[in-house]
Amino acid sequence: AGLVALALLPVAADRVVAARIESRTAKAFQQGMGTPEAPEVEVRGFPVVTQAASGTLRHVDITAHDIPAHGSARPLPVSELSLRLDGLTKADDDSEARARSARASAFLSYPDVSGALGLEISRGDRPGRVSAVVLLPLSQEVTVTTTVSAVSGNRIAFEDFEVTGGSLPAAGSAILDRIFERPIRLRNIPDGLRLRSVTTTADGLDAEFTGRSVTFRPEEA
């Protein structure tokens, strides 16, 4: 029993170090991204204490919820952001943390997309398309679908809309052209991540990112 206890001491000590790092990372991420709650953080790999001593964490997973979108005319919050960071280091003055490379997935709910566009958005009739309901005078409705895609600058584009229900007058078509012509930029994503693809699901949009030299700055709340 004594030998088993001695063998477990390094594991327990390593777990204490990992928990402390995870707590500090969660707090810094919450401050930097302005989330209502601290994210879930997991430092992977054993031993963590040697990674901490070297100044580089090999792999860190972060899952955050309800990331707001500040500083945008059409804010689109992120319901959930899952990050897998490789080679995470921090500055000596704690002013920033930087990952050598990262992959991320963001979930954008249809209610939030609807709020950003000013239209009721739901899943479309085909993969990669969403449906929008346009309210007309006299309680009339028109349904259109549009293609969703990732474009440069971490933006989501809505293109090639088609009327799938009802009759859309010329004035309504011009309004939709103005709504859909400007892609929505995701402003609440860590520096260095680049949007690679957007797919439609039953409940919202899934956005996939990759990046190198991804930076987090706690003071940028």
Descriptive report:
With 221 residues, the protein is α+β, with helices and mostly antiparallel strands. 27% of the residues lie in helices and 46% in strands. The protein contains four helices and eleven strands; from the N terminus they run αβαβββαββββαβββ. The strands form two sheets. It has a six-stranded antiparallel β-sheet with strand order 1-2-3-4-11-10. The protein has a five-stranded antiparallel β-sheet with strand order 5-6-7-8-9. β3 and β4 form a beta hairpin. The longest helix is centred in the N-terminal third of the chain and has 32 residues. It starts with a helix and ends in a 5-residue tail after the last strand.
Q: Could you outline the blueprint of secondary structure elements for this entry?
A:
Elements: H1 2-33, E1 40-44, H2 48-54, E2 57-67, E3 78-90, E4 97-109, H3 110-117, E5 120-123, E6 129-136, E7 140-151, E8 155-165, H4 170-181, E9 184-185, E10 191-200, E11 204-216
Antiparallel strand pairs: 1-2, 2-3, 3-4, 4-11, 5-6, 6-7, 7-8, 8-9, 10-11
Could you write a compact summary of the structure shown?
The protein has 221 residues and is of the alpha+beta class. It has helices spanning 2-33, 48-54, 110-117, 170-181, and strands at 40-44, 57-67, 78-90, 97-109, 120-123, 129-136, 140-151, 155-165, 184-185, 191-200, 204-216. It has a six-stranded antiparallel β-sheet. Strands 5-6-7-8-9 form a five-stranded antiparallel β-sheet.
